[in-house]
Amino acid sequence: MMPKPWNETIEAHRREVNDAILDTTAVLVAEHGLRSVTMSRIAEKTGIGRATLYKYFPGVEAILFAWHERQIRGHLEYLAEVRDQAGDAGERLEAVLEAYAFISQESHGHHDTELAAFLHRDEQVARAQQQLRDMIQDLLTEAAETGDLRDDVAPDELASYCLHALTAARSLPTKAAVRRLVAVTLAGLHPRA
Fold first, then answer.
1. What is the pTM of this model?
2. Cβ-based neighbour number of residue 40 at 10 Å
3. Alpha carbons 83 and 96: distance in angstroms, whole number
4. Of the residues 41, 58, 75, which one is the last residue of a structural domain?
5. How many domains does the chain fold into?
6. Residue 147 DSSP one-character state
7. Cβ distance 117 to 36 under 8 Å?
8. Residue 11 confidence (pLDDT)
9. How far apart are CA 65 and CA 87, in angstroms?
10. Are 56 and 18 in contact (CB under 8 A)?
């Protein structure tokens, strides 16, 4: 039986190598484009042998999907942290919508069209979108129950409204513009006088 610290060290090493592979691949794609990245190039830039690389991933596509999954998971974890740090339901909703809008603005410049089309066909994107929609819908439901937000439209419809409205953040040039978009989106959620 191996001592536990040895197993933890091996697992930590595997995570480090995995992260290095994902990070290197993302940099290579950003610098050279999706079609020019090969397993040989990834192994060379990561500083590992090709045989080792193939022990981790069967091909470039698998690496890109793993990288994208890590990005998505990180975004969802961040949004959950933002939600949990804010006050009441209305404040949590505003914080999550603003954070999501900033993520959208920031992410838009990082993906070229070919890479985005490749990555967004994966089912993990649909799952993440549903998790985000559920998070926002729960906040909308809670805020409507307290009277802070309108209750004449179903929360699932309002969640769609918010997510679609905030896709405009991708094309906005400044943080101030993103904040104004979030404010306009939130204004549409308040009860009619």
1. 0.81
2. 10
3. 6
4. 58
5. 2
6. T
7. no
8. 85
9. 35
10. yes
Closest by Cα among 136, 161, 160, 141 to 151: 141
Count H helices, E strands: the chain? 9, 0
Given a cut of 70, the residues of the chain with pLDDT beneath it are 1-7, 108-122, 193
CATH code for the domain of 187 = 1.10.357.10
Contacts of 152-159 with C-beta under 8 Å, sequence gap 24+, read 152/191, 152/192, 158/189, 159/133
CA dihedral 83, 125, 26, 171 (to 10 degrees): -70
Range of the domain at 41: 1-58
pLDDT of residue 2: 45
Look up residue 68 and give its two tokens: 């994208």
Alpha helices in 48-112 (DSSP H): 50-56, 60-85, 89-108
User: What is the structure's pLDDT at 1?
Assistant: 47
Residue 32: phi, psi to the nearest 5? -120, -10
pLDDT digits (tens, 9 = 90+) for 63-107: 988 988 898 899 999 999 999 998 888 899 999 999 999 998 887
CB-CB contact of 161 with 121 (8 Å): no
